[in-house]
Structures are given as structure tokens and as C-alpha cells.
Write a structure and sequence with these properties.
By secondary structure, the protein is mainly alpha-helical. Helices cover about 65% and strands about 5% of the residues. A two-stranded antiparallel sheet has the order 1-2.
């Protein structure tokens, strides 16, 4: 069942229609999704290039390796758990900052 029941029709000139299509494409959204973001005061970001996704993949692999190292070190009691937790938290914050920079829409002042 449809969650949106109200239909709105908008008239655009050729330039506006091209801009709407291009901005939606660049953000990886449908035109309707883009308009919904804008109405709520968010400016969607352009979809990042493949370098971004490769960086995220590498960060995830780093996290997996860090986790494996921690498990082994914990099993032989040769790790500073507090230091490891601090470093793991830093890593998580770094990943979130990358997502904020490249993926998440930013709130605009409307």
C-alpha cells in the first residue's frame, strides 16, 4: 500500500526540468526523493565516485583485521583493552565522518 496519498503537480520550464533531473541523478535519487529532501530542509549530496567506496572497503578490512588481532590478543591476555577500545572508537568515528562528508544529506537553513 502507498504511504503517500497526496499528489502534487509542478510545472517547470525546460531549464528547471533539466536541473531537477541532473541534481537527482548526481545524488543517486529519484526526482521525487530529491524534492522530499529539499522540502524537509536537507540538501542531498552528490553520489561520491568509486574512490570513496574503495576507501570504505579498505576501512572495513582494516576493522576486520583489528578485530581479529584483538580477539587473539585477548585470548592470550597480551593487550591493553582500554587502549584497544579507544582506538576502535576512533576508527568508528572516522568511518562516520567519511559517511557524513560524502553520503549523508546536510541540513540547510530554510
Amino acid at each position: 500500500m502507498r504511504t503517500r496519498e497526496i499528489k502534487k503537480q509542478v510545472w517547470l520550464n525546460e531549464e528547471e526540468a533539466k536541473l531537477l533531473s541532473q541534481r537527482a541523478y548526481n545524488a543517486g535519487l529519484t526526482e521525487s526523493d530529491l524534492l522530499r529532501f529539499l522540502i524537509r530542509g536537507y540538501e542531498p549530496r552528490e553520489k561520491p565516485d568509486n574512490r570513496f567506496y574503495e576507501s570504505i572497503k579498505q576501512l572495513r578490512l582494516f576493522g576486520i583485521n583489528l578485530n581479529q588481532i584483538a580477539r587473539k590478543a585477548n585470548s592470550i591476555n597480551h593487550i591493553d583493552k582500554e587502549l584497544y577500545n579507544k582506538e576502535a572508537e576512533n576508527w568508528h568515528r572516522f568511518v562516520e565522518s567519511i559517511k557524513d562528508e560524502y553520503l549523508r544529506p546536510k541540513k540547510t537553513d530554510i
